Amino acid sequence: MVSIDNLTVEFSAKPLFTNVSFVINDKDRIALVGKNGAGKSTMLKILCGLQKPTSGEVSVPTGTTIGYLPQVMKLADDTTVREETRKAFSDTTKVQERLHRMEKEMAERTDYESDSYNQLVEKFTEEHERYMMMGGDNYEAAMERTLIGLGFERSDFDRPTKEFSGGWRMRIELAKILLRKPDVLLLDEPTNHLDIESIQWLEQYLQNFAKAVVLVSHDRAFINNVTNRTLEITCRHIEDYKVKYDQYVVLRKERREQQLRAYENQQKEIADTKAFIERFRYQATKAVQVQQRIRQLEKIVPIEVDEVDNKVMHLKFPPCLRSGDYPVICENVRKDYGSHTVFSDVTLTIKRGEKVAFVGKNGEGKSTLVKCIMGQIPYTGKLKIGHNVEIGYFAQNQAQLLDEDLTIYETIDRVATGEMRLKINDLLGAFMFGGETSEKKVKVLSGGERSRLAMIRLLLEPVNLLILDEPTNHLDMPSKDVLKEAIRAFDGTAIIVSHDRDFLDGLVSKVYEFGGGHVREHLGGIYDYLRAHNAETISEAVEGNTATAGQEATRSEQKNSSATAQAMNAPSDNVSGGRLSYEAHKAQQKKIRKAMRDLESCEKKIATMEARIKELDTLFMKPENASKMELVTEYTDTKRALDEENERWFKLSEDLETLKAE
């Protein structure tokens, strides 16, 4: 479908790619992988035509459409969610408008026998057929399904987009791209702004997507569930693996071991050849052999070993003055956008030295409360920042605020002061921007590199209150680990807005849950919070809590209305017993739902393996395939896996029946 031939990209005479060639076929689902800065985002920009290569060609067949979701997008719109999403169907709505005009003209005219009227009817018929092929009047339903799948409520459809956070507005852009159904879908870190439910919905959508997909993601589970081919950018070229990511990791390890052995053998051969030349260079009887060895040495093509990024990012927050005992105190804080209440009655106290997490669904007010604390937006209620508090703020869109025309060095040089100006190179080196890299322009940096550069800016000012809004977006796993250790060692106070439970594990001692317009405090770490909700993920915990909010309110009203009875201690046991029975019922229902999900997943795996065995049976009927060992091995492995999955299905079925009977 799309052909890339001899692609070369250079920045400041330093090649990023050299003579790269590959083909994107119809229905390919490709994971584009490589270390930070290898050129993944650049490759996507070249594929969609936003950036030109230094040399080489990208051949896209006429009529082929490409949809591209970048990591960072500058959003400027003033419409409702529905109106903005409807822009994806601009071609359909134009045809619809032409049909309405022709219908009106046919109704007004009376020259039914004229040639022009017949031509109008024929044109209307053609346009109507085209309209129906484009989906006709079904586009509104498709639009609603996609928005709901990405986490929007129906009540959100007519809200202005400016009321939504950057993450939700990126979801609208993703919805528009998906609804256009392009022939090639390019997605750069699409899960950064999605919660667990939306990621799962997107996984299913892409699994059923009939066209080609190329995606960049640090979410290993996501790319494993979606892709069937892995392209690795390494040593300025592309290595093509026709397997999923997990299999690629194994094959890549084997390939690198082979490369290392071949490299060592080649180095030994070169050393032996050079030793022979040096030993017999001046002996006339060996002159012919020496010349042969010299020619052999000149013909040797050096073996390159795939790069392994062993560099470590060192991160340390500078010391600062001691803050007051209570850096943040909120009393009955409320925030409204028009008639929409984001949250109300927020009362919380954060003590000096505490590391706390803000969790909850996107749009529930986590970033909004952060902006209230920063004094960036108005609110009602009382919010007090403690004595001597110096705030360091890392926003979700921090990378977008960088000046793209400056180099990395210039970006830091403009904000550094005092002695820090003498340590800029050391600081850049600690963040893997050392040497010539510091002369790169910001506009050529990947999302991960921009986030690291924005983090350096945060380090230049001593602070005692860190507020980090989704700091792990665009960071790879090693960078996340280093940042986590730095925050853990930070002797000040930290507020971390994140949906990454692994990042928060062992880091925070208190969790504030945002949902249903309220903020609830939970003492303990992130897994204590999850266990309290009998949940496996943050999103599941928030979902369960929101679902029971109404029932809790009802119980509260009943409690207030029976004050006299409670004073006599008569019905209090019943209320307590009701609460316990409800919680037990809730836990039981959660176990049943999980068992049903496991059973459904097992059935899907069985169906997939049975379909593959049928395909292999068909292939074996052809004589040329009868002796192909790779097919025989695949058939044996699939059959064994199918037997194991069938046994698992019986076990899951029995467990589900037992749960339902309890």
Extract low-pLDDT stretches. 549-582
Give the strand line-up of the largest sheet. Answer: 5-6-7-3-8-9
Strand content: 15-25%
Protein structure class: alpha/beta
Break the fold down into its secondary structure elements and pairings.
Elements: E1 2-11, E2 14-24, E3 29-33, H1 40-47, E4 55-59, E5 66-69, H2 81-86, H3 90-108, H4 115-133, H5 139-149, H6 166-180, E6 184-188, H7 196-208, E7 212-216, H8 220-226, E8 229-234, E9 237-241, H9 245-280, H10 287-299, E10 328-337, E11 340-350, E12 355-360, H11 366-374, E13 380-385, E14 391-394, H12 408-413, H13 424-430, H14 447-459, E15 465-469, H15 477-489, E16 493-497, H16 501-504, E17 510-515, E18 518-523, H17 526-532, H18 538-547, H19 549-561, H20 563-567, H21 572-620, H22 629-661
Parallel strand pairs: 3-7, 3-8, 5-6, 6-7, 12-16, 12-17, 14-15, 15-16
Antiparallel strand pairs: 1-2, 1-4, 8-9, 10-11, 10-13, 17-18
Helix pairs in contact: 3-4, 5-6, 9-10, 21-22
